[in-house]
Amino acid sequence: MSAAPFQRPAPALLEALQEVSSAAASGALTRFGVPNHYCLGLRPLLPGRRLLGVAVTLRYVPTRPDLAERLRAATLPSLEAIEFLQPGDVLVVDALGRTDGGHLGDVMATRIQMKGAAGLVVDGAVRDFPFLQQMDLPVFARGVVGPPSPLLPVEYNVPIHCAGALVQPGDLILGDDDGVCVIPQAWAAEVARVAREAEELEVFLRQKLLEGRSIIGVYPPGEAIRREYEASRQRSSGG
Amino acid sequence: MSAAPFQRPAPALLEALQEVSSAAASGALTRFGVPNHYCLGLRPLLPGRRLLGVAVTLRYVPTRPDLAERLRAATLPSLEAIEFLQPGDVLVVDALGRTDGGHLGDVMATRIQMKGAAGLVVDGAVRDFPFLQQMDLPVFARGVVGPPSPLLPVEYNVPIHCAGALVQPGDLILGDDDGVCVIPQAWAAEVARVAREAEELEVFLRQKLLEGRSIIGVYPPGEAIRREYEASRQRSSGG
Amino acid sequence: MSAAPFQRPAPALLEALQEVSSAAASGALTRFGVPNHYCLGLRPLLPGRRLLGVAVTLRYVPTRPDLAERLRAATLPSLEAIEFLQPGDVLVVDALGRTDGGHLGDVMATRIQMKGAAGLVVDGAVRDFPFLQQMDLPVFARGVVGPPSPLLPVEYNVPIHCAGALVQPGDLILGDDDGVCVIPQAWAAEVARVAREAEELEVFLRQKLLEGRSIIGVYPPGEAIRREYEASRQRSSGG
Amino acid sequence: MSAAPFQRPAPALLEALQEVSSAAASGALTRFGVPNHYCLGLRPLLPGRRLLGVAVTLRYVPTRPDLAERLRAATLPSLEAIEFLQPGDVLVVDALGRTDGGHLGDVMATRIQMKGAAGLVVDGAVRDFPFLQQMDLPVFARGVVGPPSPLLPVEYNVPIHCAGALVQPGDLILGDDDGVCVIPQAWAAEVARVAREAEELEVFLRQKLLEGRSIIGVYPPGEAIRREYEASRQRSSGG
Amino acid sequence: MSAAPFQRPAPALLEALQEVSSAAASGALTRFGVPNHYCLGLRPLLPGRRLLGVAVTLRYVPTRPDLAERLRAATLPSLEAIEFLQPGDVLVVDALGRTDGGHLGDVMATRIQMKGAAGLVVDGAVRDFPFLQQMDLPVFARGVVGPPSPLLPVEYNVPIHCAGALVQPGDLILGDDDGVCVIPQAWAAEVARVAREAEELEVFLRQKLLEGRSIIGVYPPGEAIRREYEASRQRSSGG
Amino acid sequence: MSAAPFQRPAPALLEALQEVSSAAASGALTRFGVPNHYCLGLRPLLPGRRLLGVAVTLRYVPTRPDLAERLRAATLPSLEAIEFLQPGDVLVVDALGRTDGGHLGDVMATRIQMKGAAGLVVDGAVRDFPFLQQMDLPVFARGVVGPPSPLLPVEYNVPIHCAGALVQPGDLILGDDDGVCVIPQAWAAEVARVAREAEELEVFLRQKLLEGRSIIGVYPPGEAIRREYEASRQRSSGG
């Protein structure tokens, strides 16, 4: 139950994803054939906050007295994971999707924020929302609830399941009001490039629609509109 | 997979429903014995926006390469449905209730708005919410999510299932913060009349309660309070 | 189907819970081994409103013509329950978790408010949300929906199931943005004491974290930090 | 939490339903406009056993130490309900649909059988299935599971919710491999008559289909086939 | 709401799938990248019966008086679909997954069988199971239930959604105790070839395991075991 | 992702549980305050088979190309777990409860059986049921389905979540027609003792009921019946 080493991505990779939406990133990953890259059923507790950072993972299991005793004899994996966080990291928690208890609350969130973490993603509920909503920390979860967690943290920095997605330590986590996208490092540069191109194209297409064009031929874009777009790009970047 | 003709309702019918809430319309339809007239599980993405218009329907099925190829060889039914929209229409989409992909996004919403549509109702999720929330278009859906749709549009203007309701092309769609009510044209005039009467009566009953009356006899209204109400109406409309 | 007598708690008990969060109350009840004390799946319709009061319970069952006739021949249990309310009471409704109809609406809510009730908790949906959100009444429910209820009120002031919790008449109901906690009278004084102590301790622990401490040893609090806390309390309360 | 008196139906009423299937009974009740008369999600634990009897109802709620203590100080409502059973009765249990515990097991089933009960219907799970399957007692439930019930019996012979149906004490309970139908006494004679007529007609229609007829005109039966049927009935009953 | 023409597959195609299991067919389709080819949540009502045939599709929507009247004025699409069946066809029904009513029963099943259909697949429940289990017809459905269907048949031989799968008229339907696989004609020959090869290989691999081999290298099969397999095939077909 | 060492229980411990039902074991664990000890939603694929053995655990996560490549470069954890099995072991698999793919099939089951394993428990579906039902291996799972698994095996012999239960390597797994109970080694001897006592007592209580006693006082057993039972035990064991 120790932490496996992983390589944090180069800052330029995060930089490249700065303007990318979770929908565009997901569109790119879908095109690349990468499945299970989006958390389904999670929502931003504070709508409007964007999240971008590097995954540190944490896994919970149902509690039992003998396991609880063994875990508490050492340092709890949840605490180790939090102390492991570096500025810009995102703690991603497999809490089995359970919303009958809050798996993290105000105290843990305070330390997570002090570590400079970019945010918190929980496949389950969190608690102390009356307090959490006064903090700056972007939190994505299934919801909020009062009771303490019926689970125990058992491992950190292992591959986890989070709301339908696979999350590996070191993955890039991108959250906005559509939800949370998980971007493997190996695809991140391509995702950034393709997603930005797609968004740029969409701006152009929406502009055409706002000028009164029919959607037929415009979206999904046909060859003619693509040529128009290329021409427009050359004009705008050109002499 | 072509569009069946249908008669749009007279403007007066829409006018008559202008002040009616979805709850009052549903109350009237329930009284008339019309089942399956309310979308269950949909919410306004932008609370506070009212929706009233005429249904144009669109049906999705799970994707498959051979069907995708055949559909794309012609014009996609989703695009035909959007171009079919007239000012005041509502695009109502059977997306099988699926929230693992966004079945419409910013580009399609832009064209829907340009067509003068009254709004969009989706039994499933939409995507690009960070953009959609800046538009004026009332959207009712199960939620928002980043990934592209795993479905294909297969037919439009056929009777569809939408979140527990039947929707036929030409039905009147009435949405507010309680949700979305589907009003068949044949009942619409009666719905408008009965719903407005019920709301007027409820204003009176609430007034009596605000004056300190017991709810017993007042709601559901007994004969005595109904007589009081009739008397009050005659006074207010009278000489 | 009559009301059983129950003792309302002393005002001091409510007073003691005034500053307690539903999460802290749930934490205390969990420690005391009291299960089934939290409503799962309910949310505040008007976030930010706190609820604290004494439970009056109401139970619904699916409708049927013969039962409807019998119930309407007398006074409906829902109306009796509402008239039974005293200032500070909370009407807690077992509506079988159903969200395909709104079990209470604007008229009933108006009378509930006029009775001085502290709020309304419904395991199911309510209707007329466009109106309800203009009222002052704290309402916790599964959601909002337009159609009338497909259920009938059948009993009041009996023990009920509400969203996973047991609610008995006279229980204390504490709601905030985390949800709704049900506090049995017999445990209420202890809950207030333990929850306030826990919250006071957590303020101290968060302060330590804000000063840059590691979470290890601080939360869950080890012996050293507990001694620090005791020392700090004595200083602050001391002469 | 005492038993309300109710009138058991005349034996002739049960006799009349002896040959009726739960599907035919449900068809008749649907035609009469009686909703909520069928238990959804229950299955016969021992397929092939038919159940017909009179409902005695029992209601469970989530457990809590104070309620448990109060209930055990008197006689548990579950035991009172079982002792209340007369030969031919069916114990119908609202166990909140929960399958995380078995609400009745081998010991209670033994006494239920000794009382001459016609069977047991549980909206939830039962336990001790290795033993129960050796008994003669028809049991309909959501499933089987090992843990004891997390619920408490709180009332008997009150109207209950059972798997989507309303069950009142004295209702007729008819179970077969399709599931469990709840027949109110007031409709039972008409249900028996209409259901038997429908089944007789269906035998005739199936015979016509087995002779090679097209289903068009035969089912749903048109006027011509109905005349044929009448003629055939007169022939078979005639001189 | 008329039937689109489609080409039934050559008998040799069906012949080639005769020995293929639904699991092997699904394995092949997964390898070919064909998604949405398996019905999830359906089970054989009569375990042990195999189903193989050509899809005729039927689509239901929630009922409403005006639609019911219009449909009944002509011939119901369900009846047209049944009469359209040729020997070896399979009627595949999108009944919205609903199990609160039985969408087909004994009479319709009788005619389906008389038409020589290979079987029936329903995304929803069927009724009259006490009768259906005495018939020879393989039926795959979500379950059985007594009440009549709350839906209306609205179209046939259009692409439908069935339990997570896409079904187009003319698709090959292959059912066994694992469930129902939908094989598009365009892939059917390749599915048959690859699935039979895979099953043949698996027989060999299981034989090796029964001889005591470790599973490592054997499954998934490594190069060495594949060479062994090729050698064994040549031996058995050779000389 | 390697196997942690654990101590298999002494054979006498398994021996002591030989006659204990999963319901009785769960009853004992509930009394001891051990939560999360029963798998909810799993059923025996071959009813009537009993399972008793020692847990070897295996954990799956959603697939992704980079993880798949890394895992396949070494030996898959699923294969390592199977080869790790000793006679009498039970492979317990966290497959995230997913039934859209079969996580183990005929080939893996064959090797599991060859290793002398006592059985297989899967929180998810298995495939190749037409083959599996011809084997001797007791399998408990959520169901059967044809498609291959959409998951990857990622670790073995770590604590896992299985259908609501915690399973640690070395736990005792006891399955029968009620389902699967997870017995921690530390409690196993006490579970065996208490469960056998409870079952012996229940035999006595059922005998009393079969003699015509009222259930009141007999179950739950009062003091008088307990004294009778003690007397009866002394008689039967005595001179």
Description:
Chain A has 239 residues and is of the alpha/beta class. Helix content of chain A is 36%, strand content 28%. Chain A contains eight helices and eleven strands. In chain A, strands 1, 2, 3, 4, 5, 6, 7, 10 and 11 form a nine-stranded mixed β-sheet that branches. In chain A, strands 8-9 form a two-stranded antiparallel ribbon. In chain A, helix 2 crosses helix 7. The first copy, chain A, is elongated and about 65 Å long. The termini of chain A are far apart. Chains in contact: A-B, A-C, A-F, B-C, B-E, C-D, D-E, D-F, E-F. Chains C and D meet through helix 3 of C and helix 3 of D.
Give a topology summary:
The structure is a homohexamer of 239-residue chains.
Chain A lengths: L10 H6 L5 H10 L6 E2 L3 E2 L6 E12 L2 H9 L3 H8 L4 E14 L3 H9 L4 E8 L2 H4 L6 E6 L6 E6 L3 E3 L2 E3 L4 E5 L2 E5 L1 H26 L12 H15 L2
Parallel strand pairs in A: 3-4, 4-5, 5-6
Antiparallel strand pairs in A: 1-11, 2-6, 3-7, 3-10, 8-9, 10-11
Helix pairs in contact in A: 2-7
Describe the oligomeric state of these chains in a short phrase: homohexamer
Give the distance, in angstroms, between the N- and C-terminal Cα atoms of chain A: 59 Å
Q: H/E element string of chain A?
A: HHEEEHHEHEHEEEEEEHH
| DSSP E strands of chain A, number | 11
Low-confidence stretches of chain A: none
Which class do the helix and strand fractions of chain A yield?
alpha/beta
Supply the number of helical segments of chain A: 8
- Categorize the overall geometry of chain A: elongated
What would you say about this model in short?
The structure is a homohexamer of 239-residue chains. Chain A is built from eight helices and eleven strands.
